[in-house]
Amino acid sequence: MYSTFLIALREGLEAALIIGILVAYLVRSNQRKALPNLWAGVAIAITASLAFGAFLTFTSTQLSEAGEQIFAGTTSLVAVILVTYMVFWMKRMARGLKNELQSKVEDAIPLGKIALISASFFAVAREGLETALFIFSNFKTISTDSSPVIGLVLGLAAAVGLGIAIYKQSIKINLGKFFTITGIALIVIAGGVLSYAVHEFQEFGALPGEDAYAWNWVNANPTITTLLSGTVGISTTISWLQLVIWAAYLTFTLRAYLAPKKAVLVNS
Fold first, then answer.
1. Strand partners, 215
2. Which domain holds residue 66?
3. Quick one: CA dihedral 221, 222, 228, 229, positive or negative?
4. Considering the domain boundaries, does residue 268 fall inside one?
5. How far apart are CA 165 and CA 38, in angstroms?
6. Low-confidence residues of the chain, pLDDT below 50?
7. Total structural domains in the chain?
8. What is the DSSP string of 130-149?
9. The pLDDT of residue 265
10. Most exposed residue of 2, 172, 210, 260, measured as fewest CB within 10 angstroms of its CB?
11. How many beta carbons lie within 10 A of that of residue 48, not counting itself?
């Protein structure tokens, strides 16, 4: 529940802020007539994200055991790569994101309806498709009860509520700190997804060491199992290879993410 809530909150708020920036620009520039086109692009992006998630779920249920292992491992690995890239991208681009989005909409308006729909679609679809893939992969690492779905719904609801409140200036939050903290959380969750990908490749036989356990709590308390899988994404049964790759990913990625920006020296 915790991991799906954090994913939905972080990614949902990013999408909500993007939509808010686009709407605010059209309102301030007295181009309210273009709002239906913008919302059409947003609706198509959301629909495409839901369809992508449904496609992933349906595909995974139609494969053989070996095929599902490869599919789950591959999608999990791709999800980790995309999420890691997007976390660093947002850190680098956050300050200039508003101007970039406004520039794209400004360029699209003179080109007509389709151009504006496309601009809003691609602005939101990037977040939506990434979220669908990451949520699908994360669901594989956590408990099979209804709590992950509850976390997903609550996270999206909180993201929409915060997005609306920020747009209406009802609340003010330090977005820099928010995205830094949630970025750390996403990296930790991605580490769990990466560990799961390694496990799937081990089961298929593509990687060694499936039975070389770092720990194997056969009779682990279900509460502990749920807590571990729902937060850091690792299981009460984990191989040494999974543990080493998980720890290495977290160590190098978090160090790079939290490294201070280098000052740019200008020669006078």
1. 238
2. 2-258
3. positive
4. no
5. 20
6. 264-266, 268
7. 1
8. HHHHHHHHHHHHS-SSSHHH
9. 46
10. 260
11. 16
